[in-house]
């Protein structure tokens, strides 16, 4: 399933690890950073992961 390496936006308090997450896909390239950034997992990603999407 599309679980991917963690990504976060520099100006956000959450990180994303599911490629189906629309918030993840909306991160502007200039704000995109690798890793969790020590942030909490996005609730949308958490739900997608839990549903196996
Ligand atoms: Zn997300």
Q: Count the helices. How many?
A: 2
Query: What is the mean pLDDT?
Result: 96
Structural class designation? alpha+beta
Main pleated sheet: 4 strands, mixed
Q: Quote the beta fraction.
A: 25-35%
Describe what you observe in this structure.
The protein has 53 residues and is α+β, with helices and mostly antiparallel strands. It has one domain (3-50). Helix content is 23%, strand content 32%. The protein is built from two helices and four strands. The chain has helices at residues 22-25, 43-50, and strands at residues 3-9, 14-18, 32-34, 40-41. The chain has a four-stranded mixed beta sheet with strand order 3-1-2-4. Strand 1 and strand 2 form a beta hairpin. The protein is globular and about 30 Å long. The mean pLDDT is 96. It binds zinc ion. Zinc ion binds next to strand 2, helix 1 and helix 2. Zinc ion is lined by residues 16, 18, 21, 23-24, 42, 44-45.
Structure, briefly:
This protein is α+β, with helices and mostly antiparallel strands. The protein has helices at 22-25, 43-50; strands spanning 3-9, 14-18, 32-34, 40-41.
Question: What tags apply to this protein structure?
Answer:
four-stranded mixed β-sheet; single chain; 53 residues; globular
């Amino acid at each position: 399933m599309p679980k991917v390496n963690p990504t976060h936006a520099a100006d956000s308090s959450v990180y994303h690890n599911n490629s189906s997450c629309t918030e993840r896909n909306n991160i502007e390239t200039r704000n995109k950073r690798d890793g969790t950034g020590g942030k909490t997992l996005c609730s949308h990603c958490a739900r997608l992961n839990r549903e196996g999407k």
